[in-house]
Input
Amino acid sequence: MTFSFNKSRPPYPYLSAEIEGSFAYRTVKDRMPVILTKVIDFLCRSKNEIVQSSHSEAAALEDLKLIIGKLSKLRSEMQTNKTLSKFEIDCPHLQDSEKWNTELIETKDSAAPCWFNSPWLLVECYMYRAIYYMFNDSLYLKGFDPFSHMKEEAFFVQKNIICQLASYTNGLCLKSNYSSSELHVHFMKLIEICLWGNRNDLSLSAGNTNTEVKSNSFFDDIKQLNSHILVNNINEVWLHMEHIQNNPYDNKELSIIMDNSGLEMVADLCLAVYCISHKLFDRVNFYVKKIPWFVSDTTCNDLKWALQYMENDCTELQHFAEKCRAYLHSNQFQVLEESYFTLPLPYHVMQEEDPKLYKKLCRSQLIIFKGDLNYRKLGGELCWPSSTPFKTFLQGFSPAPLLALRTIKAEIICDLPSSKIKELDLLDKDWMTNGNYGLIQFAK
Output
């Protein structure tokens, strides 16, 4: 069975770059071409270093030139609203070309899908899948991540805060007999840390790693930003956590559908370390991306790189990395890759499109969906009225109790009355796209 954006008429229009002035329009018109330009510039500037590891530098250099040409062509096609091309060759690592090509054929009521006329989710995902396809189609540069240098630079910029988070979490693990109220307080704080760690998104800044995070005020900022959490179901989440503790599950699983690497990834690790060390869960599953995605999304290689880096840095980072390694070795942490997370499909069709993944998620006692892209997929990329209840927004997607943690960077939202929207519009005209406001939304 194949899902397409027009298989059944959705209750509301899709977010699309067709609407001039919308964030989707600005993304396709400005941000996405800038990202491609930065990748092209990096490949041109660093070509000698990139091909050095190949056993045939001259042939690898030719591969690189071809890729740069293809990236330039993709940018031009985007800017001139050309048709999205089918993927001619499948990638063994993904085996998703058939699904992609069916989406491209069936979208827009069978009209040819174009950059500015198709659902935003489709075209934005397409760009990153096309970039991967170009490298995978080469002889000598398969598996190359053109965003890894940006992610590593962002980690260095955020390092002081990352050290603070590691130190804080290490301290929480020193004591083993917290009361229920103490467990509650620390859990809530870590959830808020995970939320606000989501502000650092390289696809939003078009790959700009120079946006400095003020290390001396991060924990203070979290306190001050409490009023910026527009929907906060944290108390409902803790009631559910108490339910988990009071019931004899064979294996208590937390699944985190991850978003950004760097600071946000470390924040997710902090929550996981706390949950395992205090037996709130028996296992944490980290779902990462199979391929480089949306510039800063976490891949398995990003996680490996970060742990290796921390193991060779300050004492606090070393101790934190050791805990993570120990939980990985004991299988209390599992790092998982699934192709569904790099398809342009919303989550309410997962049970039909990928029943194995859906069944796997059903084993969790809690699933945390991180960030804006996951939120867009939870809501099917639709222009929902802001007051829509979260459960309606999910369109029946309910493999397990789920928690959405998201700083708002796209014009899609639910559970917020129209009066609050008007109030926010007066306070900050960019509140839906600048990441200064957050959501903690829970559904059982």
Observations:
- The mean pLDDT is 93.
- The radius of gyration is 21 Å.
- Residues 62 and 140 are 9 Å apart (CA to CA).
